[in-house]
Amino acid sequence: MVNPATLKSGGATAEPLAKAGAAADTAPPPRVQARQQLNASIVQASISVAIGSGNEPLALLYKSALTGINEALAPDFGPDAIQNAAGQDNSPEGTAGRIVSLSTAFFDAFKEQNKGLDDEAVLQKFMDTIGGGIERGFKEARGILDGLQVLNGDVASNIDKTYELVQQGLQQFADSKRAPA
């Protein structure tokens, strides 16, 4: 690696580069690092999508949905409430199943943090919170895939199917919480 302090421009040392290098030695906060890692993952997935891999768009959708959910849950549970798993089934069913199970897994903790609300109000607030994150994630994924000009055919129909399955899963979860014990 080149030491910025040793770079010369027109016979003078590159003093600003040395200062910038020193500033770069300090690590960014964990939230910034997590966002940088996500951006790198999105770029990698985007490259894979551009190459034409059939399941990578749903992997990107999953990452975007998790990011939206993480952001929605961050005020109550801190950054990265849900972590991305490696080696996963990227079919619409597999992707939807993970989105639903990972997002709804926080219900008991969410309920505990909202003790002042009745059960229906807690459930509604929780569903609104994760639903908003899921909506953002799907919107971001569609935007990225549309920008790459791959949001068509099987990719578009798989995303639509995944979204439909997620909505069904969320409804089943809500219904199960409303059912008499």
Automatic annotation (TrEMBL):
Ranges of Low complexity composition bias in the record: 16-26
Domain DUF5610: 55-173
Source organism, top-level taxon: Bacteria
Pfam families hit by this protein: DUF5610
Region (Disordered): 1-33
Protein's name according to its UniProt entry: DUF5610 domain-containing protein
Organism: Pseudoduganella aquatica
